[in-house]
Design goal:
The chain is α/β, with parallel strands linked by helices. Helices cover 34% and strands 27% of the residues. A five-stranded mixed beta sheet has the order 1-7-6-4-5, with helices on both faces. β12 and β13 form a beta hairpin. The longest helix has 23 residues.
């Protein structure tokens, strides 16, 4: 048994906050933010439920399937709308899905964790699953802290996947966690994100590259055979360093961070869908997803694209 991707969709809040907007309230500059992070603007607003519903609905419509034929939803999020019940409950209800639903929190690696989980569940459970990454990081961002406020944004992305009797499109994956580094990026209940940026940067490149290598080795694929790298959209310099160390051309990286900022679990599906919509993928192309996040978690997955 394997997994096939049937549909994809995204959702972003309407409100655009540019670097120039942030210059008005923070001791920062458009130049600094672009040079150090690659981010030019981000979208702010809506609830995690709204963004998950928007992205999920777009993916279901694109797949052309009856929502009730989807027997499970996994919502990757680190910013649920409330503690109880899970945000996935309301999203499941609004989309008219059947079966169960649950939230999954693996921070910015969440979407890869959710996709790998869906892949495993397809072999024994429902034959269609909606996988969503949706976040409202703006709610846990301290807008007076220039170290973090310039980096984050809100958004959602989703895939509808179904089981197929052959190997399917998910060829290999690697998930991991180093809890020794859990202090470098965290937010308490009711608090804001606190981050040791330099430490995250250093570790992010290393764990993303190591995880991607393990996934490629598992699939017996060389880095130069990868057509598209879809990295977590945290910092352009992290992505470029990872490309260089992996031996993947920088031009092969999917990038949306310049207009979305870092949207945690939503960033990989946002970048993937953008690449699909730009016509960057043809059937048979190898796509490498690679994320890292608080925990410190990491996850990578290799997909053979089939529209
Ligand atoms: N505007 C202007 N100056 C700033 C700003 C800002 N917004 N933020 C920090 N600075 C200053 C610092 O105070 C520091 O000043 P100092 O030298 O006088 O102390 C100087 O700029 C350099 O700071 P660094 O932290 O060394 O800057 P760096 O080049 O490392 O860039 C950044 C900072 C962008 C945060 C980078 O470290 C980074 O991207 N780290 C990884 C962050 C990340 O990926 N986070 C999320 C991962 S997981 C998740 O998504 C939840």
């Amino acid at each position: 048994m394997g997994m096939r991707i049937l549909g994809w969709g995204t959702a972003l809040p309407d409100k655009v906050v540019t670097n120039a907007d942030l210059e008005k309230t923070l001791d920062t500059s458009d130049e600094w933010i672009i040079e150090r992070s690659g981010i030019r603007e981000r979208r702010i607003g809506d609830s995690t439920t709204d963004l998950a519903v928007g992205a999920g609905r777009a993916a279901i419509e694109q797949a052309g399937v009856d929502p009730a034929s989807i027997g499970l939803m996994i919502l990757a999020t680190t910013t649920p709308d409330q503690q109880v019940p899970a945000t996935s409950a309301q999203v499941h209800h609004e989309l008219g899905l059947s079966g169960g639903a649950f939230d999954l929190n693996a921070a910015c690696s969440g979407f890869v964790y959710a996709l790998v989980t869906a892949n495993a569940m397809l072999s024994t459970g429902p034959n269609r699953i909606l996988v969503v990454g949706a976040e409202t990081l703006s709610r846990i961002t301290d807008w007076t802290d220039r170290n973090t406020a310039v980096l984050f944004g809100d958004g959602g992305g989703a895939l509808v996947v179904e089981s197929v009797p052959d190997e399917g499109q998910l060829l290999a994956w690697d998930l991991g966690l180093d809890a020794e580094a859990r202090h470098i990026l965290q937010a308490d209940h009711g608090g804001y994100i606190k981050m040791d940026g330099r430490e995250v940067f250093k570790r992010a490149v290393r764990v993303m590259v190591d995880s991607a290598k393990r996934t490629l080795e598992q699939a017996k694929v060389r880095p130069d055979e990868v057509k598209l790298l879809v990295p977590h959209q945290a910092n352009i310099r992290i992505i470029q360093a990872a490309c260089d160390r992996l031996g993947i051309d920088r031009e092969k990286a999917a990038l949306v961070m310049h207009r979305t900022g870092n949207t945690s679990s939503a960033s990989i599906p946002l970048a993937l869908v953008d690449a699909i919509e730009q016509g960057r993928l043809e059937d048979g192309d190898l796509v490498l997803l690679a994320g890292f996040g608080a925990g410190m978690t990491w996850g990578s997955a290799l997909i053979r694209w089939q529209a």
